[in-house]
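Now for our target.
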Amino acid sequence: MLIELLEALAGWDEIRFVVRNESAIAELCGKPAARRTEEYLTIELSGSPDHLHVRHSALARAEVAGGAERNCFVRFFDPAGAPVLTCYVPRTNRAKSDFDPARRAAFEALKARCADAPSVTVAAEE
């Protein structure tokens, strides 16, 4: 379910993929496309050489969240509980002037589709 969730997010017209650790932060913004191999899911940005590889085995669970005053996001965790990748969905913050109700509704539908998956936690809206 986790790879499918990440692939679904990579199918949106704009997503922010953020990889963060103690020493660095990397962010990819734009229209993504996903390609799956046996070991990795590769996320590429259209018209750019920018990409990232996510090892399938590194994804153990995900948290799907979004509140009234923040953009929706999905955070993926490794088996030890450390964050691997966060996918932010721009224009889903109801408090901002660029709020897009259709994008928010699409995210809510995605959230509902994965709500029963044992590896996915759906956070209560703030």
